[in-house]
Design a protein that fits this description.
Blueprint (H helix, E strand, L loop, with lengths): L2 E3 L9 E3 L2 E7 L4 E7 L3 E6 L2 E5 L3 H16 L4 E6 L4 H6 L6 E6 L2 H10 L1 H4 L8 E5 L2 H7 L4 E7 L13 H9 L1 E10 L7 H12 L4 E8 L7 E8 L9 H11 L8 H6 L5 H7 L4
Parallel strand pairs: 7-8, 7-10, 8-9, 10-11
Antiparallel strand pairs: 1-2, 3-4, 4-5, 5-6, 11-13, 12-13
Helix pairs in contact: 5-6
């Protein structure tokens, strides 16, 4: 029986049994593998790192989508950077938006996810509001004249193709693409093991926004406990939106979720002390 060993960290690893291999190939940009695991369902990996599994993808995609969308409250134009598996798109189109652009660097990820991870996108790539762009996310935000209410960076970790999406330049250019009051959120790794990544984002992204911080969710696939999502906006009221207001809007939208709810939304901004300590300035 074959096994897949994740190679994200040098000193610790996790291993998955491959019960059935669906796809494995070197794309133009990275090594892509999709396989079935009896516990987690279908699993996608890129360059030796697990990106998503059928069993718990809903936590990640719901939290990175619905928190900024409900906090904004009136988003009409959305930009997704990355997200080729389609899960973020699936959740975003549950909202009454007018237009959504998705920029994915690797067309093969989209094609193979539609074929082998169909439950992730659940037909969302057929939505008429979508403009799918195959391009590098940093190049798109540098060159576009479009403006967005919410930008979601669903990138890989800051190695390989995803590295540029954690730079000062990316945060500045993404800020330029936001409408007034817009919100940028990004995946920001597992801080228990990736503390430096959180500290770097806090410093770099914090230079761009009046309100910059993190919120959290526990996602079993991502070894190490909480995953952090970076949050940036110049609307100082968005993070502190009253629970009653979020609940009323959530109920009116009648969005079906499996993890996200308004109480989770509000609680997710409460950070464990070890994360708060990591963000304190060093003397």
């Amino acid at each position: 029986m074959k096994h897949f060993k994740e190679t994200l960290y040098d000193s610790v690893c996790q291993e998955y049994r491959i019960d059935k291999l669906y796809f494995e190939s070197k794309t133009e940009h990275q090594h892509l593998m999709i396989f079935h695991n009896a516990q987690l369902g279908r699993v996608m990996t890129l360059d030796g790192i697990v990106q998503t599994t059928e069993a718990d993808e809903f936590i990640y995609h719901e939290m990175l989508t619905h928190v900024p969308m409900l906090a904004h409250g009136a988003a009409k134009r959305v930009l997704i950077i990355g997200g080729g598996d389609g899960g973020m798109l699936r959740e975003a189109i549950k909202h009454p938006i007018e237009h959504i652009t998705q920029v994915e660097i690797d067309e093969a990820v989209v094609e193979m996810a539609i074929k082998y991870l169909p439950n992730h996108s659940a037909g969302a790539y057929n939505d008429k509001r979508l403009n799918l762009v195959i391009d590098d996310g940093i190049e798109f935000v540098k060159n576009t004249d479009e403006k967005f209410d919410v930008i979601i960076s669903d990138s890989t970790d800051p190695i390989g193709p995803g590295e540029v999406l954690f730079t000062d330049n990316f945060y500045a250019q993404a800020k330029r693409c936001l409408n007034p009051g817009g919100i940028l959120v990004t995946q920001n790794g597992v801080p228990f093991f990736q503390k430096d990544e959180v500290k770097t984002t806090f410093q770099r992204m914090g230079q761009q926004f009046a309100d910059m911080g993190f919120y959290c969710a526990p996602i079993p696939t991502y070894y190490g406990g909480f995953m952090t999502f970076a949050w940036g906006t110049d609307n100082n009221d968005a993070r502190d939106k009253p629970l009653a207001e979020i609940s009323q809007q959530f109920e009116q939208l009648n969005i079906k979720t499996r993890y996200y709810n308004p109480a989770i939304h509000q609680a997710s901004f409460a950070l464990p002390q070890y994360i708060l300590d990591a963000l304190k300035p060093t003397s």
